[in-house]
Amino acid sequence: MIDTEARSAFARAGQPSAEAAVTVAYLAGLAAAELTLVAAGPIPGALAHAALLLGLAIHATMLPDAPYQRMLAAITLAPMIRLLSLLLPISGVPPVFSIALVGGLSLVGVAVAVRVLMVRWADLGFRRFDWGVQSIIAAAGFPSGLAIWVAARPLAVVPELSIEWVVLSIVVFTVFVAGVEGLAFRGLIQTMARERFGTVASIAIATLVPSVLLLSALDPIAILLLTALNLALAWAVDWSRSTVGAIGAHALALFGMLVLWPLTLG
């Protein structure tokens, strides 16, 4: 009896380190897939992300009772979103339409994951919240977008600063980019990580996942600035238990760096 209890206690003690090792391995795989994209181009990069997606899906499916199964299922969203962004660009039209298409399909994937994992929307940060606090969090996106644009000077994703293009870009950035990433990274992944590893690790994971996906897109200074923004947003979500302000901040940062500042200061 004592021996059985001792083995059980030892197994429980080993679970967190095993879960952490598996999670770190897949996060390293995500970084490797993105670096493959940088070093070898879009086709090898897409294949690397597809292999990671397949591996995560098989691992999560084959071990339904594993304590980290929900974590793996949540991380699956990262290579899925990246793979869609590589496979579905639309040539000959403003990039904002490609962003909307990728975001729309990603949103479907996120909604399916929420249903399969049986996560309540309230646990993803969609609950009653303090409008004042969330407005302050959202407002931080405006100067953040300016700083990132100054560092990276990305091109505008719309042709002009007209009312139609401004409204379209705000909707696309809010729903199909900030909303999708807010749900996937600072909602599902951060929630699953908090369940298994606690607050500090969940903030770190929710910061690293979206930041790693930027490795092929921007220069080092912009990546550092966006990583700092991701860290601040993950902390704000954990502190306020709401993703609303973080989604607003992300959308404002994107609008500034990809529409407002390129068309007014560029």
Description:
It is a single chain. The chain contains 11 helices and no strands. The protein is globular and about 55 Å long. It has one domain. The chain is mainly alpha-helical and 266 residues long. Residues 1-14 have low confidence and may be disordered. Helix content is 80%, strand content 0%. The longest helix has 39 residues, at 2-40.
Supply the key terms.
266 residues, mainly alpha, 80% helix, globular, disordered N terminus
Give the helix/strand layout:
Blueprint lengths: L1 H39 L1 H21 L6 H7 L1 H11 L7 H22 L14 H9 L1 H12 L10 H35 L1 H14 L7 H21 L3 H21 L2
Sequence of secondary-structure elements: HHHHHHHHHHH
* Shape field: globular
Tell me the span between the first and last alpha carbons: 73 Å
Q: Given the structure, what is the number of helices?
A: 11
**Global structural class:** mainly alpha
- What percentage of residues falls in helices of 4 or more residues? over 70%
**Please, how many domains?**
1
- The radius of gyration over CA amounts to 19 Å
Give a quick account of the main beta sheet: strands, pairing sense, barrel closure.
none
Strand content: under 5%
Tally of strands: 0
Unreliable residue runs: 1-14
Calculate the mean pLDDT score and round it.
88
